[in-house]
């Protein structure tokens, strides 16, 4: 057209968040009884930034002896902490919530560096949720009589908590906030690849004046975690991570009095009916599987789409995936960051390759991957059947398997046809269909016309091999009370 | 101490986030427990009450529409701001109620903690007052509570600050807005509280503070058709009955005066008194036209 | 997909014939409109808000500012408009920043029909278009012959573009066919002399489902642009309603090959706001819409804010209202 100016791309210039807001020490010890100390034997390991492979710091490798010291410190602190009036415990937690709010930009940058996830997510999702979680459970500390667990419910004692690397600080909040509110003390082991935010949290505990020993952080690998859950001084074990490790923990605590909650894997079905609000469904699908590079236990990793709208939906989805921006996680415009570790990247790669080998059709938008670090293109597979590994196994990466269905009954049957039962999504403008389908899905969290929504007031947890127990909400108190 | 002449504070009403003088142009003398003059307080008229109701009504939409989390943050902020002006309130409460400093400290500390207590309730009260109901039929049925609207509050006459906070905080925690009539003989802590609220992220109009003669102001609030509820904590038995009769005109929710130990841990009564329960039915149906559940 | 043609292009009418079934009768049109996918308000607003967090800096910002300036329909629509006011506005459109001749011109000025000739005289020899509101703007409460006469007046006075309002009363009463036919009649009046922008007054349509339906009515009737609002009601252009309309033109082009422009109007006052809208365009419909043939801002005070930001980028210091012209 004559009057049409020649189009030129609206290319976003780099908009990196400043690293200067966070000061990472060259090495960190264990946080036990209110002090940082080296590990017994002095073993350390490095934590790197997965987007650059740069070494961020050296962290102590906690041994069984260190775990023992930490549990003893927590035990010692338990007596006074559990005897404090709830209103006083509440005020400590409110202080922690406020300090997290104050330091949220620093923590967001730190989390992005250590985890590889985009700053947009740590800034707008992780950190606000972390602060909100402490704020919410702070309020429960002096209201336990009203929580529906009888009068004056008692804490359990020392909680041993092992958390994963996908939402390091948020999972810490989910574990520590309810434990402390109910009067327990904790020993927490952060994931091997993302230990830093937990160590910064230790500093926040100090700023808040939290009594020594109430929160202890022991960094390390799987052996450290195993020592913690096996420790006889632990009254409560809370674990978020893989189903395989969850089963091992369940075996470990068998025959003891330890109360156990497990948040494990998932293979969430995102079910799109032909009357769905399509544009919003596309956003929900993208958010469901590409949020945090798909490294989310409740990810909507299986798209179940009604056959009558499959082509239309896939066109829209591919168009949308082509606009995702992959790259430097510290850039405020990055949508897709780095995979957390070489090990995880290898697992995603292996499973995606199996999808191709088993006959599914692979598609990914064209995008350049940075040279260093661990990266995986947002990918979708069509022509997937229930028999494919990519329809059954948790990939824990940015890979979406697309299946189709014809009727609501078939959608429910396929969605439920999984060892897992953590999450599901339903997209339809028809309320009665949504409720009918929701009531038949064997999943702990169901999102209708939305996906991946979290709130401290809302319980979260799975059916079947996705684990048991609930975190969040009034229900989340039960895991830490002697009821 | 030098012979510097101190600056007196002019106490003003707190209405719609602003600090007006009484429309009546009148004040009354406030004295300490020994009868010594402390300050003049505005003597609110019926018109002041009307203006306060208008301000409170205007604030209902925004405040009740804010997330419970947000309201919790705001209430907690009140506690933070009060902590910074603790000494001022200790002095005012001690003078107003004739308390020793230690006793006044206990009152003020308890009042600050009360804001914290209710800050924690904003996002929990709905979880214990509502829930799903297992109706016998293919229906999803859920009850939830919401604020009743504008609540007129007659603050306790004896407990000028802890009692005051104990009646305001539960009403606004759930999303109501209030017009509070301060303790008649000890209104100064209430008027100072307005200054704290004005700088605490509490939106203008959510709390409106009037001072004056309870028996003069209360009847117009009790009879006001745009007030949804009334807390009679600060009314004596005779006045309370008269107000309850007036309140019946538009079936206000009425919380009658009762003996309360303001220092004791409160329950949930003062919140639930000003909540409405709404129940929603929605068909769930079955997965297929044949009614099969697959 | 067929090659794209603009709605006023020669092929457009032929392309739209493929959808003739949809507009064959009142009931057919109703079925078609009610068969469009629903809009979930929370999801739509969340998507618009999330695009609003894009961080547009340095070179991207400079690009966006110039692009935004070039997309403005610099507007004055007041009862108090005088020839003097309109001449000043037109001069500003042609030469927005007297201190920097590299500043792009605005796309158009937008005035009432009786001011078209005045504006046209000032803008002769420039590529700045004159847009005129018409059809009993802003309420649209007049008989069709009056609306057509209003349109004709504006075109005869030299208007390059017509900004018409739809009959919201008819729309809300469910008389979709009346709305469509009225747009068609105005379009016929415009012929190939003027491009037609169709204003929905989204604030009065109220729901997103209605805005989507109105968008399709407008496009089916031959609109060259769909436009949010008159600027005269409480809620005007918002990121969410503009995103929804961008989705509509995207889907319409995918279906018919006919490209339609989008014009958010009213309430866009700052550079930051304008850039958010450009991000919406960029990430919803892409660069095909990133010029003033296909995207416009209906605005007045926005221009000076853009100019101040432009000065800030070139000088490194913040500018102030004394350093841009007041018109």
UniProtKB/TrEMBL annotation, chain B:
<dbReference type="InterPro" id="IPR016162">
    <property type="entry name" value="Ald_DH_N"/>
</dbReference>
<keyword id="KW-0560">Oxidoreductase</keyword>
<dbReference type="InterPro" id="IPR015590">
    <property type="entry name" value="Aldehyde_DH_dom"/>
</dbReference>
<dbReference type="Pfam" id="PF00171">
    <property type="entry name" value="Aldedh"/>
</dbReference>
<dbReference type="GO" id="GO:0016491">
    <property type="term" value="F:oxidoreductase activity"/>
</dbReference>
<protein>
    <submittedName>
        <fullName>Aldehyde dehydrogenase family protein</fullName>
    </submittedName>
</protein>
<feature type="domain" description="Aldehyde dehydrogenase">
    <location>
        <begin position="24"/>
        <end position="254"/>
    </location>
</feature>
<dbReference type="InterPro" id="IPR016161">
    <property type="entry name" value="Ald_DH/histidinol_DH"/>
</dbReference>
Automatic annotation (TrEMBL), chain C:
<comment type="similarity">
    <text>Belongs to the DeoC/FbaB aldolase family. DeoC type 2 subfamily.</text>
</comment>
<keyword id="KW-0456">Lyase</keyword>
<dbReference type="GO" id="GO:0004139">
    <property type="term" value="F:deoxyribose-phosphate aldolase activity"/>
</dbReference>
<dbReference type="InterPro" id="IPR013785">
    <property type="entry name" value="Aldolase_TIM"/>
</dbReference>
<dbReference type="InterPro" id="IPR002915">
    <property type="entry name" value="DeoC/FbaB/LacD_aldolase"/>
</dbReference>
<dbReference type="GO" id="GO:0016052">
    <property type="term" value="P:carbohydrate catabolic process"/>
</dbReference>
<keyword id="KW-0704">Schiff base</keyword>
<dbReference type="GO" id="GO:0005737">
    <property type="term" value="C:cytoplasm"/>
</dbReference>
<dbReference type="Pfam" id="PF01791">
    <property type="entry name" value="DeoC"/>
</dbReference>
<dbReference type="InterPro" id="IPR011343">
    <property type="entry name" value="DeoC"/>
</dbReference>
<comment type="pathway">
    <text>Carbohydrate degradation; 2-deoxy-D-ribose 1-phosphate degradation; D-glyceraldehyde 3-phosphate and acetaldehyde from 2-deoxy-alpha-D-ribose 1-phosphate: step 2/2.</text>
</comment>
<protein>
    <recommendedName>
        <fullName>Deoxyribose-phosphate aldolase</fullName>
        <ecNumber>4.1.2.4</ecNumber>
    </recommendedName>
</protein>
<dbReference type="GO" id="GO:0009264">
    <property type="term" value="P:deoxyribonucleotide catabolic process"/>
</dbReference>
């Amino acid at each position: 057209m004559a009057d049409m100016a020649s189009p030129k791309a609206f290319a976003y210039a780099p908009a990196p968040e400043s690293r200067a807001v966070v000061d990472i020490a060259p090495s960190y010890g264990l946080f036990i009884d209110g002090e940082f100390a080296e590990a017994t034997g002095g073993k350390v390991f490095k934590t790197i930034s997965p987007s650059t492979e740069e070494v961020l710091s050296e962290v102590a490798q906690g041994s069984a002896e260190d775990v023992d010291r930490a549990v003893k410190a927590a035990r010692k602190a338990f007596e006074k902490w559990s005897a404090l009036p709830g209103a006083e415990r509440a005020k400590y937690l409110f202080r922690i919530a406020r300090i997290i709010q104050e330091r949220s930009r620093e923590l967001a940058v730190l989390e992005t560096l250590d985890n590889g996830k985009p700053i947009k997510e740590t800034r707008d999702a992780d950190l606000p949720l972390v602060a909100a979680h402490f704020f919410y459970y702070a309020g429960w500390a002096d209201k336990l009589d009203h929580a529906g667990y009888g009068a004056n419910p008692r804490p359990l004692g020392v909680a041993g908590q092992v958390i994963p690397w996908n939402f390091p600080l948020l999972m810490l909040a989910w574990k520590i906030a309810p434990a402390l509110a109910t009067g327990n003390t904790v020993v927490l082991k952060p994931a091997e690849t993302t230990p830093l935010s937990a160590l910064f949290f230790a500093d926040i505990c100090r700023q808040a004046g939290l009594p020594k020993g109430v929160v202890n952080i022991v960094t390390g690998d799987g052996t450290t975690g195993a020592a913690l859950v096996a420790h006889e001084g632990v009254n409560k074990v809370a674990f978020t991570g893989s189903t395989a490790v969850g089963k091992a923990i369940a075996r470990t605590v068998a025959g003891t009095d330890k109360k156990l909650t497990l948040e494990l894997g998932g293979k969430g079905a995102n079910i799109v009916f032909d009357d769905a609000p399509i544009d919003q469904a596309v956003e929900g699908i993208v958010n469901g599987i590409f949020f945090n590079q798909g490294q989310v236990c409740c990810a909507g990793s299986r798209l179940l789409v009604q056959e009558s709208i499959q082509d239309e939906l896939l066109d829209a989805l591919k168009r949308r995936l082509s606009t995702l921006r992959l790259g430097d996680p510290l850039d405020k415009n990055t949508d897709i960051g780095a995979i957390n570790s070489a090990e995880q990247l290898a697992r995603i790669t292996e499973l995606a390759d199996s999808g191709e080998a088993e006959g599914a059709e692979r598609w990914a938008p064209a995008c350049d991957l940075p040279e260093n670090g661990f990266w995986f293109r947002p990918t979708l597979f069509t022509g997937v059947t229930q028999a494919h590994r990519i329809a059954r196994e948790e990939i824990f990466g940015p890979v979406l398997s697309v299946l189709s269905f014809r009727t609501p009954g078939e959608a429910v049957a396929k969605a439920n046809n999984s060892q897992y039962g953590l999450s599901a999504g339903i997209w339809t403008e028809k309320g009665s269909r949504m409720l009918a389908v929701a009531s038949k899905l064997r999943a702990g969290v169901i999102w209708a016309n939305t996906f991946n929504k979290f709130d401290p007031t809302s319980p979260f947890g799975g059916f079947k091999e996705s684990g048991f127990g609930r975190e969040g909400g009034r229900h989340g108190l039960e895991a830490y009370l002697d009821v | 101490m030098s012979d510097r002449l101190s600056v007196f504070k002019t106490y003003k009403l707190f209405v719609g986030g602003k600090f007006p003088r009484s429309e009546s142009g009148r004040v009354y003398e406030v004295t300490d427990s020994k009868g010594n003059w402390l300050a003049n307080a505005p003597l609110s008229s019926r018109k002041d009450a009307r203006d306060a109701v208008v301000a409170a009504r205007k604030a209902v939409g925004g405040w009740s529409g804010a997330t419970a989390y947000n309201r919790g943050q705001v209430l907690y902020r009140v506690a933070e701001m009060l902590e910074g002006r603790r000494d001022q309130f200790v002095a005012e409460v001690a003078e107003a109620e004739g308390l020793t400093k230690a006793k006044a400290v206990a009152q003020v500390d308890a009042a600050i903690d009360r804001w914290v207590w209710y800050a924690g309730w904003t996002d929990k009260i709905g979880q214990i007052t509502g829930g799903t109901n297992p109706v016998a039929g293919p229906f999803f049925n859920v009850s939830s509570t919401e604020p009743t609207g504008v609540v007129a509050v007659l603050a306790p006459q004896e407990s000028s600050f802890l009692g005051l906070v104990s009646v305001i905080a539960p009403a606004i925690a759930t999303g109501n807005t209030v017009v509070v009539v301060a303790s008649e003989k000890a209104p100064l802590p209430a008027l100072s509280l307005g200054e704290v609220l004005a700088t605490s992220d509490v939106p203008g109009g959510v709390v409106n503070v009037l001072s004056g003669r309870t028996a003069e102001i209360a009847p117009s609030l009790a009879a006001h058709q745009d007030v949804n509820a009334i807390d009679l904590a600060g009314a004596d038995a005779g006045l309370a009955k008269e107000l309850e009769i007036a309140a019946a005109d538009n079936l206000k929710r009425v919380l009658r005066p009762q003996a309360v130990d303001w220092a004791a841990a409160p329950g949930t009564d003062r919140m639930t008194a000003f909540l409405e329960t709404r129940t929603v039915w929605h068909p769930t149906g079955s997965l297929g036209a044949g009614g099969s559940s697959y | 997909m067929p090659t794209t043609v603009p709605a006023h292009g020669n092929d457009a009418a032929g392309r739209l014939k493929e959808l003739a079934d949809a507009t064959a009768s009142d009931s057919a049109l109703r079925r078609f409109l009610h068969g469009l996918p629903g809009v979930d308000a929370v999801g739509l607003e969340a998507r618009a808000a999330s695009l609003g967090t894009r961080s547009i800096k340095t070179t991207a910002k400079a690009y966006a500012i110039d692009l935004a300036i070039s997309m403005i329909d610099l507007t004055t629509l007041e009862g108090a408009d005088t020839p003097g006011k309109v001449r000043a506005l037109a001069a500003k459109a042609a030469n927005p920043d007297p201190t920097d001749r590299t500043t792009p011109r605005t796309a158009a000025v937008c005035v009432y029909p009786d001011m078209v000739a005045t504006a046209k005289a000032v803008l002769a020899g420039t590529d700045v278009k004159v847009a005129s509101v018409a059809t009993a703007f802003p309420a649209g409460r007049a008989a069709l012959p009056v609306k057509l006469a209003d349109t004709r007046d504006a075109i005869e006075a030299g208007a390059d573009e017509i900004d018409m309002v739809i009959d919201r009363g008819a729309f809300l009463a469910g008389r979709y066919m009346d709305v469509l036919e009225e747009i068609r009649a105005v379009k016929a009046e415009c012929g190939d002399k003027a491009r037609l922008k169709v204003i929905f007054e989204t604030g009065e349509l109220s729901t997103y489902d209605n805005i989507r339906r109105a968008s399709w009515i407008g496009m089916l009737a031959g609109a060259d642009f769909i436009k949010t609002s008159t600027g005269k009601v409480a809620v005007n252009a918002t990121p969410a309603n503009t995103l929804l309309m961008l989705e509509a033109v995207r889907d319409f082009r995918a279906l018919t090959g006919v490209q339609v422009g989008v014009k958010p109007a009213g309430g866009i006052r700052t550079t930051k706001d304008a850039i958010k809208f450009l991000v919406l365009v960029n990430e919803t419909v892409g660069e095909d819409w990133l010029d003033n043939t296909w995207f416009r801002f209906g605005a007045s005070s926005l221009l000076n804010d853009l100019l101040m930001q432009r000065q800030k980028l070139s000088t490194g210091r913040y500018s102030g209202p004394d350093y841009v012209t007041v018109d």
